[in-house]
Amino acid sequence: MVKDARAALANKPGSSPTNRSLERGIEILRAFRPGSNLLGNGELTERTGLSRPTVSRLTQTLVGMGMLQQEPSRKGYRLAPAVLSLAHAMRSASSVLQVAAPLMRALAQSRQINVGLAAPDRDEMVYLESIRYSRRAAFRTVVSGQRVPMELTSLGRAYLASAADSQRHALFDLFRRRREGQWPTLLREIESGIENVHQKGFCAASWQAEVVALATPLPAAEAIYSLNVSVSTGDSMEAVARTLAAPLLDLKEHVLRALAQRAEG
Prior knowledge:
By secondary structure, the protein is of the alpha+beta class. It has helices at residues 2-10, 20-30, 41-48, 52-64, 81-93, 95-111, 154-162, 165-178, 183-200, 237-264, and strands spanning 68-71, 76-79, 114-121, 124-132, 147-149, 203-208, 211-219, 224-232. The longest helix is centred in the C-terminal third of the chain and has 28 residues, at 237-264. It starts with a helix and ends with a helix.
């Protein structure tokens, strides 16, 4: 199952039975996504693959810890405000975000484009920052914390170009199971994107109608991130790349240089 493959991506060497309650509790929290604001035990059981008694025990524990709020009248749970405070603490403590955000904003304003920074989470990319200045309105709004599919996006393909071979192969197995009919074509697109990152420093994708995005990996001490620039346009990916590839790669170099200076100082 795709769900089991996703969970396997998160397994770490040294995982022991004593960690299982924590791992299962985190799986409960992961089940909440935009559009899934209120979930009952049945839905959580389906989404996590855990037994109903286990889900019932864990949801009550999470309510007691202030991570979930219960709505008895609707027989469901929603994320509690404490979860947002954890996200705020993460953003405030991120040296990459502190360094990159002002440089991203300057580029977005000067070029009137969208600039994003994302990190991998299992088989998805999570936006840490999204600064939107594209003149042409897009159907889709991207905000911090939003997830996008790794296999379809320039952000994801840029990350895959720098990921360890074992991680990339595990992700490919998951993508193949999830998109079996599309996989031969999709694999060629992903491999082309990876090759472009190795040869040119960036890759391009257009997984949303009339939105073209370029991305480049941003290797930091703690993780590999991805930077992207995007525009809502009817132009081809080649035309957008001719205009925005150099600014994107310059942004990457400025961020890496600033991170190095911060580490030295």
